[in-house]
Amino acid sequence: MAEAENTTPLLIKRYASRRLYNTETSDYVTLDDIAGFIRAGRQVRIVDLKTGDDLTRQYLLQIIAEHEGRGESVLPIDVLVDLVRSYTTQAQSVVPQFLAASFEMLREGQSKMMENLSTFPNPMSSMPGFEALQRQQQMFLRAMAAGWGTAGSSGPAPDEEEEPRRGKKAESEDMAEIRRQLSELQKRISKL
User: Fold this and answer.
1) What is the pLDDT of residues 7-17, one digit of tens each?
2) Whether 62 contacts 28, CB under 8 Å
3) What is the mean pLDDT of residues 162-184?
4) What does the pLDDT read at residue 52?
5) Which residue blocks in 91-161 are alpha helix, DSSP H?
6) Cα-based distances in Å from 94 to 77, 83, 100, 153
7) What is the pTM of this model?
8) Which phi and psi angles does 115 have, rounded to 5°?
9) Start-to-end C-alpha separation, the chain
10) How far apart are CA 192 and CA 188, in angstroms?
11) Side-by-side strand order, sheet with 27-29
């Protein structure tokens, strides 16, 4: 049943007051909540209650703008400039297909990388602390996958016995390290 829920888009209704209402849980949600649903792999559809207009694109762009505004930059300035230009040129018809194909290639590459990492014998596995490093790398790759809409679709699952024992502090430290590494990756990508 959980799989069926994930394939059906979560319907969010926007009231005249601009408040967003989750029709599954019968409560109001924020943009951060919606971003969390998407990171968890849910499809989301946002509609205006009165007109029935689909507002999903508008709210997804708003979520991206808020992340970019907080310094969580994923899109280099050159890419943003090119996107703005594409709205006024003949490229407008090609850009959506190009972006969709690019992200699909990125997802497939990430999936293959996870498969290769899990099957590749590593000579460093006897090194002290290697298991903790490997868990951290897997969490990092899962966090990246979640950002690409493939959360939980590839790679080995974390050890369910060990995660609760590590505690929230270790999890928080792992996430801080993942954010740091992701920031470094973003800087490298923007220089390419």
Assistant:
1) 789 999 999 99
2) no
3) 64
4) 94
5) 95-119, 130-147
6) 20, 11, 10, 29
7) 0.52
8) -60, -45
9) 44
10) 7
11) 27-29, 20-22, 10-14, 44-48
Residue type at position 56: T
Span 70-95, pLDDT tens digits: 888 888 888 888 888 877 766 566 77
The Cα–Cα gap between 22 and 58 comes to: 17
Beta strand 44-48 pairing with 20-22: unpaired
Number of residues that make up the chain: 192
Decide which of 47 and 179 is more confident: 47
- Three-point CA angle 15, 50, 64, nearest 5°: 50
Distance from C-alpha of 79 to C-alpha of 19, rounded to nearest angstrom: 32
Note the Cα 106 to chain centre separation in Å: 12
Rounded Cα distance, 93 and 158, in Å: 42
**21 and 15 Cβ atoms separated by less than 8 Å:** yes
Question: Rounded to the nearest 10 degrees, how much is the dihedral formed by the CA atoms of 45, 48, 53, 58?
Answer: -60
Q: Are 186 and 73 in contact (CB under 8 A)?
A: yes
For the stretch 136-162, pLDDT in tens is 777 766 666 665 554 444 444 444 444
Half-sphere exposure of 88 (CA within 13 A, CB side): 4
The phi, psi pair for 81, rounded to 5°, reads -60, -45
Mean pLDDT of 35-40: 92
Model pLDDT, residue 124: 60
